[in-house]
């Protein structure tokens, strides 16, 4: 069980580290879509 927690916290750390790289393109795409709808 402790091993599972360790793996979970590790994946959370890596997700936090890489999150901006996924988030920025999504924001750009959302802004582009909003602009094209207008």
Explain the layout of strands and helices.
Blueprint: H1 2-37
The gist of it:
The chain has 38 residues and is mostly helical. The protein is built from one helix and no strands.
- Amino-to-carboxy terminus distance: 51 Å
Tertiary shape: rod-shaped
Total individual domains = 1
| Low-pLDDT residue intervals, each spanning 5 or more residues | none
**What percent of residues are in strands?**
under 5%
Class by SSE composition: mainly alpha
Transmembrane segments: 16-35
Keywords: Membrane, Transmembrane, Transmembrane helix
Task: Looking at this protein, list some descriptive labels.
single chain; 38 residues; mainly alpha
How would you characterize the overall build of this protein?
By secondary structure, the chain is mainly alpha-helical. The chain has one domain (1-37). It is 95% helix and 0% strand. It is built from 1 helix and no strands. The protein has one helix spanning 2-37. The relative contact order is 0.09.
């Amino acid at each position: 069980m402790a091993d599972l927690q360790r793996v979970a916290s590790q994946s959370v750390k890596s997700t936090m580290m890489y999150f901006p790289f996924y988030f920025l393109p999504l924001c750009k795409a959302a802004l582009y879509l909003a602009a094209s709808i207008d």
